[in-house]
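Section 3.1: Structural characterization of target chains.
Under the original work plan, the team committed to producing a structural model for every single-chain target entering the pipeline before any wet-lab resources were allocated. The record below documents one such target. The sequence was received from the expression subgroup and is listed exactly as submitted; it comprises 170 residues.
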Amino acid sequence: MQLPTDLATYTQWSGITALVFLGLTLIAFLFKWGLRFRLVGATAFMGVVTAGFFGLNLGLFTREAVPGAVRYSLVYDNAAANVVIVVSPETTPDEVEATLKQAALDIAPYGRLGTPDGNVTIRARAVIHPEPGLSIPLYLGQAQKPSASRDVDAIAVEVFEERFAQLPQG
């Protein structure tokens, strides 16, 4: 059986069920049934479930995917103007550019502290190991975006092409 993944469907059916319980509760009070107070609880519970589904339906955002982006990990976010992600050392310059755009879109604009210029800087780095026991972060590029924008065209990406020569060839 295929279950719907759209929360609006669950919200609708939960609301219908809450209205059915409300109708039953009104009828129970009208005819003084013994279970009328239990129906009040069931109606209230269905109202809370419906409100929860409705809130989840409003709060979830669709994620826009950038073609060519690779997997990254968020390693630093000061909730204001600076974010650092880490990518694999085997990443190409085109993949770094796409990944920076993807990370800039994924960074939630809500709750960001005010910055002087209103921009958020996302830096991509790889960790290289030139000798055993030594790890060096190598910044491969950065992206600047307005902190309140979710527009891919507002993202300015700069890839540091000369640093890719320092990556291990594998």
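The helical segments are 7-31, 36-59, 93-106.
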